[in-house]
Amino acid sequence: MAASMYIVVEGDDPGFDTFVNGRALARNEDPLERLAIHLGVRPLIDFFSADDNAMALLLEEGAGDPELQGKLLPPQWFSGYEGLATVSPMLQALKEDPALIGSEGEFIREELEEYETVLRKAADRGVRWHLAVSFR
User: Fold this and answer.
1) Cβ neighbours of residue 93 under 8 Å, at least 6 residues apart?
2) In degrees rounded to 5, what are phi and psi of residue 36?
3) Residue 35 in contact with residue 101, Cβ under 8 Å?
4) pLDDT 10s digits, 99-111
5) Is residue 107 within 8 Å of residue 26, measured between CB atoms?
6) Where do the H-state alpha helices sit in 1-136?
7) SS3 7
8) What is the pTM of this model?
């Protein structure tokens, strides 16, 4: 089962493409968290949020705890600038040393570049976002 960490923006149509691959980021969530802590920025997983529909999909995909579905907090949303404060320093560190996180450094860097593009557009347009996870 492959996981993907992707960006969800608030609203139906933000006016820009929000697609990000996110598979390498999901596979390397622990080293990414250590890198974020080392850089003094908020870990990506801190931006995760799920609503009832997202949780239902996770449960359908075989992930998550069914007992938690009824206890979910309302979805949390973040500004694009908050995300950029995490993604940009991590991206810069990987540009300087692609092997910093291991053998998938180049894939992680490419996905962080996708994140940075989407988050810049979200910030420029005042659109809020959060991370979601998909298992396939």
Assistant:
1) 35, 39, 100
2) -60, -45
3) yes
4) 888 889 999 999 9
5) no
6) 23-27, 29-39, 52-60, 80-96, 105-125
7) strand
8) 0.84
